[in-house]
Each structure stands twice: as C-alpha cells, then as structure tokens.
Amino acid sequence: MTARFAESGGGARPLHVVTPEGLPAFLTLLDPPARAFAEGAEFAAGPGEVLLLPDASGAVAAAAVGLGGAEARARRRFTAAAALARLPEGVWQIASGLDPEDAAEAALGMLMAARRFDRYADAAAPKARIARPEGVDAARIEAVAAGEALIRDLIDTPAMDMGPADLEAAARAVAEGFGATVEVTSGAALEEGFPLIHAVGMAAGPGRGPRLIDMAWGDGPALTLVGKGVCFDTGGLNLKSGASMGLMKKDMGGAAHVLGLARTIMALELPLKLRVLIPAVENAVSGPAFRPGDILRSRKGPSVEVNNTDAEGRLVLADALALAAEGEPGLTVSFATLTGAARVAVGPDIAPFFTGEEGLARALPEAAAKVRDPVWRMPFHEPYETLIEPGIADLDNAPKGGFAGAITAALFLRRFAPPRYAHLDVYGWNPTAAPARPKGGAGSGWRALLDCLPGVL
Prior knowledge:
Layout: E1 13-18, H1 23-29, H2 32-40, E2 50-54, E3 60-66, H3 70-75, E4 90-95, H4 100-114, E5 128-130, H5 138-156, H6 164-178, E6 181-186, H7 187-193, H8 195-201, E7 211-217, E8 222-227, E9 229-233, H9 242-245, H10 253-267, E10 273-283, E11 295-297, E12 303-305, H11 313-326, E13 331-336, H12 340-346, E14 351-355, H13 358-371, E15 375-377, E16 395-396, H14 405-414, E17 421-425, E18 429-430, E19 440-441, H15 446-456
Parallel strand pairs: 1-3, 1-4, 4-5, 8-10, 8-13, 9-10, 12-16, 13-17, 14-15
Antiparallel strand pairs: 2-3, 6-7, 7-10, 11-12, 14-17, 18-19
Helix pairs in contact: 4-5, 5-10, 6-10, 7-8, 8-11, 11-14, 13-15
Domain Cytosol aminopeptidase: 308-315
Protein name: Leucyl aminopeptidase
Keywords: Aminopeptidase, Hydrolase, Manganese, Protease
C-alpha cells in the first residue's frame, strides 16, 4: 500500500495530462522531434491513451496520458491513473494545464492506483512513482488517498481476519496514530446498555463477541460518525443463499468508511470535535441466535419485532445512534452497507443519502460533483412510516412487501438518530476493475462529505 508522493530530487520526468481540446497547446510545448513523434503516433489524448516520448538517444524522456473529451471525462473517473502501470520505472512529475479539479483528480487517481493489497498474495506495485505535484494541495490528496486505502484494506480483508475484535484493533490503530481515545463496551455491559447490538452478535463464536467501539478526538463543532460493523453476515436464521453470502465480508463497509474518513479528518487536523461509533458484530447462526418473531427492546426504549434476522444492520445502528443522541452530537452521519434496494435504485457507484438538513442536502451533491464521488438524495417519505409499525411492537425491522426498502430502512434509523442527521447507504465494493478502482473494496460518498464539512457543521 502507498498513499504518498515520491520525492523527486529534481530528477523526475514529466507526465503530461492532456485533453483533446488541450492537445494543440501541449504539442507546442514539445521540441520539433518530439512533436513530430507525437503526431506520427497519432496521439489524440483519448481516455487512458498513453504516449511515451523519446529523447535524442531513444530513451523515454517524457510521457503523456489522455483524459478524453468532456463526455468521456463525465463517464469515467480517474482516467489519468491508467498511465501508471504503463510508465517505465522511475519518478514522474504530473505536468498539465488542467483546471484544479481535474489536476487534483489526476493526482489522487495516481496515488490510489499505486495501492496494492498484498496481505495474502504478492502484488507488485507499479515501478513508476509520482512526485509531489504542483498546483494542488498535495498534503490533502495524500490524506484522502490514505483514507481510501484504509477503507479498501479493511473491506478486502476476509472475515476470518476481520472479526469484531480485529475491527476494534483497527480502530485503536487509527486512534493511536492521531492521539484519539477509544472506549469499548462488551459483555454484560453491552447486553445491558445496547441490547440490539448484543442480540445480533451473541451467536458468534469464542473471541468474536459483539462490542460497541467509541472513538473521540479534537475540539470544535461536533461531528459524529456511525458505521455499521457487521463483520460477516450469514443472514442469521433467515440464512442467505450461498450467492448472496459470498460478499458478506464487506458488510462492515460502513465501519470501514467512518474509520477512513476519521483518519483523513485527523490527518488534516480539521478543527472539529469528532466522535466515531461502530457497533461491531458477526451475524452468525448458533443456539443463542436471535429468531424471526422475537421482540427486542432497544437502548432508546422502543421495542422492535424481528421479522427478518437478515435485516440486522439497522438494529445495531439503532443502538449506536441512540447513544449519539444522548450527548451533543452536532451533525450525525451514518454509513452502512444497508439495503439491496439502494443498489437496485442507483447501482454500485452512487451513494444514496437521506437527510432533513437542507444545507447538507444542497452541499453534498455539489461537493460530490467537485471531487468525482457521486451521491444522490433520496427522501424520508413520511407516508411510509406506517410500514415500519407492525402493531405487536413499536417497530418492524423488515416490512413485508419489499417496496421502498432503502427508504423504510432509513426511516427506521431516523427514529433513533439525533435531530441533525444524514444516512448514506453505500455498497462498499467495486464489481469491475477501472483506473484507480480495482475490483474489491471501495469507498463511496465519504470524500464528498469531507469536502463539504466546513460549510455544514
């Protein structure tokens, strides 16, 4: 894994990032032999197109990578990162006449493309390295790349090595790096104070018991992040099919998101009071497993009828959100791989979000467009409140009928959340490899939130 720019020592070769509309200006920068070479190679600055430019001896002296036209740039993120695997060994300096947003995306994409997950198999890093670029906030880009790398590493790690205790260890490692504090509630105290978290996680094996992780750092306007930490989801007694269970190591993706975002906030020393709450559980099957039809009492008080043990994420988040609401949480944001309905609605790339905060509702999509981290607002549709009210208990964790699954889940969470609240229903996985976005764990929506935080806290 790498999330830092290389030191050039003055010897970096230039890597030009070129759009078709900027191609004529780029060609004028080249000396006549290099210009003739580029024209002879018919370099058109298409998306991901790479041109290696020789010097008089024939050695590679510079390179160019195309971004494609405006339509291509709108359809494909981090295109410039495609060059990294095709550049010769050495240090390269991004040189471009791009606008700041395109330049920042190119630099971030290069760092993310250099990341390798090599815990279980050799994964050689690219031989080319990118020097600290000019004209962008390089320190911020490094912090964001490190946050994304952490998210991906946590999600990519299989459940055998990423149970509740391992997730706690990861949170402690992040906290120790920046002087944050961590408190963990487990055992009898968890059963007493967080009954929904305990109920979901109590069937797990020895050493994999449920817990509530509580991290605190900094001072200033308050931000509370709550992340779903279901380290593996069998579906419980409503057992998932094998096909549906195959990716359930990623069901702690919400926890990974809030840890990656928290790491970035602390690295950037943002002036805010940060709290991170992670209910960490494994939804397993054994004798003590909670059952369909059980009625559970929540930390906040309302009872919940369990009509599907595979709708466990909203249960553990409910207790964590209730804890947040007991203090002075400021803006509270939850991240969770919560519903298949969200994926049906917007696919894997887009993070749907719910909020009653109109300022955030305007700012988040604007930031998402700026940093190329797409989000889409969905409604807290009040008439659907009746769908989560079963009659025999205060709330239903899995309304029958299957309609509006993402909305009813968000409405359920809102019953427990503080007043200033937003929820992001993320996928946490990239199903198809793309530049800077290999197949596997992936962050979504958190970079957009980071960008707009100063204006919404």
